Amino acid sequence: MKPAAESNSDPATNTLPDDAAGSSPLLARIEALLSQMTLEEKIGQLTQVSGNQAQTGPLSLASADRDGLRSGRVGSMLNVLGAHYTRAHQEEAMQSRLKIPLLFAHDVIHGYLTTFPVPLAEAASFDLQAIEKSARVAATEAAAAGIHWTFAPMVDVTRDPRWGRVTEGAGEDPYLAAQIAAARVKGLQGRQRGDTDAVLATAKHFAGYGATVGGREYDSVDMSLRQLWETHLPPFKAARDAGAATFMNAFNDLNGVPATGNRYLLRDILKGAWGFEGVVVSDWASIGEMVSHGHAADTRQAAELALNAGTDIDMESSAYRKHLPALVAEGRVSLALVDDAVRRVLRLKFELGLFEDPYRFSDPAREKALLGHASHRHAAREMAARSIVLLKNGTRAGRPVLPLDPALKTIAYIGPLVKAHKDHHGAWAVTLPEVDCEKFIVSPWDGLRQRLNGHTQLLYAQGCDVEGSRRDGIAEAVAAASAANLVIACVGESAAMSGEARSRSRIGLPGVQDDLLQALQTTGKPLVVLVNAGRPLIINSVAACADALLYTWWLGSEAGHAMADVLSGDHNPAARLPMSFPRHEGQIPVYYNHFSTGRPRQASVEVPWAGGYIDVETTPAYAFGHGLSYTQFAYADLQLDRPRMHADESLTVTLQLTNTGPVAGDEVVQLYLRDRVGSVVRPVMELKGFQRVHLQPGESRELRFAITRESLAFYNDSLQCVAEPGWFDVMVGASSADIRLRGSFELMD
Ligand code: BGC
Q1: Which residues are catalytic?
Q2: d(CA 152, ligand 1 centre) in Å
């Protein structure tokens, strides 16, 4: 089962080579410092504590622990924000004997002061450049506020929308998630380590967290190793290959062994086969939680298991600092392993230039100049518009309902989220103590009001709350709708309903919002619905009563402007769903790249003895990759430059794409493959390429996709990555359920 090692690390422990001293100036400096450190100081480097400017988990230590900072017993901190505060804490650390600077980490998940769409929404853009840029802006602002290290990107593949943390990832597909993981790592880490507009990235949560049983938070994960390698590891490998400086454990157990103490994951795969030379940080208190898992008898044994398994830094469980001294003295943890972990941490600090200037990131002038910079807001608006998915666009009086007709005299803007600010941030918003973050978020109301600029009258009614059963506002909403020419409803979840510890068993619209929409529909006015949420919701009844439907997720600081850009047609929507949307909770997990089975699913529930359910269709309500536009595209002329290929060759697929509609727009062209026969069964289709292409009306372009061995390979029953000879189907289309062109080729022996 153990994958072949690629690195030059010690094969027994997969530690960094220890003959490194003197082999480079950097390594020589690390060794020189290490040789001066006491065991307590070494363990200090492996100890991370939380400050008190944000709280992202249950605190277990006295926050800030000033004594620990001054005595070198803390190596890094999370939740300390801002040039001023990071500097103040660094000054404490500079009083320690060896003056080893602290690393400041924070969860900068989708922006710092300027926030971008939640990661799942950004994934919908299928736009790697824009995603990288979003991460660049986040890094620029965070680094200007003294942050060295972000706990992002989350690269867990997610197929269960009941799990609240789907909002932090890139959805259900390993290929898309891997591309996005690499883009985010590049964007966060910038050109080179040590630049003051870049932060260290963390690929998290290693591994399997996206597959917790029943979508329940912090639950178990039980999956075959083949499934792990095929579906869940590719984005982590992509993050590692893109140079991610750190990895974070996951809270879950994987096949019975908590990820935090999982040697197979950390020593065999990450530090072994993948040759990862960076730092592994535990998740919040996850070392101590191995006791609750029932994997360690006490925190002492948990510390032993975690360090030996390859977890370098203990975030907030204090297990390392309490127990490593004795564990080392007794030989239960070797000093060599402690040294290896410390080397990894020190290396990052040297590379960031902190030994030259521990305050180089804590610059109030840069912080003032960069946070919320106009160019950042501009990028956030563009990214937000690029993330909005058009799910339906019906016609009224022979004209599509969207974009809005500029001649409309009165629009009623209705719903509990129309005037919301904070909700549009989504989960993991940074809250800065001295900044009114709310004023940084443009509400849907303000965005549309500015865009209409008085030409169209806007009426408002809240209608109902996001949650709860009060219906007394519905009559007022109906009255406003009746007085308007068109109604826009802004409904969904509140931000606090998705994210960590926000699993939901029912994922329809909460409260009485469905009733509000039904009531608005009775007015007979054209009804446009914007659904704001951090996860895929079940929206069958919404779609049934809406003339037009936009999935607007949580879009961040520029939410209202971006919504107005799309409603007005200033921006033609092109985003695509990165997760399948179920029709019913009972279908979950529903994902496009499933196996065929011996009795393949049929679209109709009527087919006897077929796979699926008898009471709900097997297809999702909206398929992976689905999304509409204000224009149309024609796909033609699929060509393969050869009918067969060898594994060391590349095959080129070409096709002609034409914008046949009335306006300019982007199309996300998706290439899927099916391996018809495998030694282990293969999915009915797998995404292997995509391009977001901009075309003017009437414009045509030839698109090219390369198919290589990598596109064809998979993990066989012995976990070897193989490309097996045989026939492959090529499918190119506008979504996984809208294939426009087909071809096939043979992979030769
Ligand atoms: C989350 C991590 C996060 C950490 C620090 C944990 O609860 O699972 O994703 O990075 O807290 O805030």
Answers
A1: 283
A2: 10
**pLDDT value at 159 more than 80:** yes
Give me the mean pLDDT over the 264-284 stretch: 98
Segment 555-580, tens digit of pLDDT: 999 999 999 999 999 999 999 999 99
**Predicted pLDDT of residue 439:** 77
Q: Which helix (H) or strand (E) holds 499?
A: none
Q: Which of 1.10.10.10, 3.30.230.10, 2.60.40.10, 3.40.50.720 would CATH assign to domain 633-747?
A: 2.60.40.10
The class that CATH gives domain 105-352 is alpha beta
Contact in structure between 92 and 133 (CB atoms under 8 Å): no
SS3 content of the chain, % helix, strand, coil (to 5): 30, 20, 50
- Range scoring the smallest mean pLDDT among 42-56, 175-189, 323-337: 42-56
User: Model pTM greater than 0.90?
Assistant: yes
CB of 68 closer than 8 Å to CB of 47: yes
Averaged pLDDT for residues 417-429:
92
Q: Could you tell me the residue ranges of all domains in the chain?
A: 18-55+64-100+353-372, 105-352, 373-568, 633-747
373-568: in CATH 3.30.450.20: no
Are 373-568 and 633-747 in the same CATH fold?
Answer: no
Q: Quick one: which atom of ligand 1 is closest to the CA of 251?
A: 8
The tens digit of pLDDT for each residue in 19-37 reads 544 579 999 999 999 999 9
Q: How far is the CA of 256 from the centre of ligand 1 (A)?
A: 21
Smallest Cα–Cα separation from 391: which of 132, 127, 607, 576? 576
List of long-range contacts for 38-42, beta carbons under 8 Å, 24+ apart? 39/324, 39/325, 39/328, 39/335, 39/338, 40/72, 40/73, 40/325, 41/72, 41/73, 41/96, 41/97, 41/98, 41/100, 42/338, 42/339, 42/342
- Cα 580 to averaged position of ligand 1 atoms, centre (Å): 26
Average pLDDT of the segment spanning 174-196? 98
Cα atoms in the 13 Å half-sphere on the side-chain side of 18: 16
Contact 427, 495 (CB under 8 A): yes
| Ligand 1 pocket member 107 (CB < 6 A) | yes
- Would you state the structure tokens that stand for residue 715, as one six-digit string? 């993990």
List the structure tokens of 48: 């991370």
**Probe ligand 1: pick from 147, 260, 500, max atoms within 8 Å of CB?**
500
461 CA from centroid of ligand 1 (Å) = 38
Tell the residue nearest (CA) to atom 12 of ligand 1.
56
Give SS3 for 163.
Answer: coil
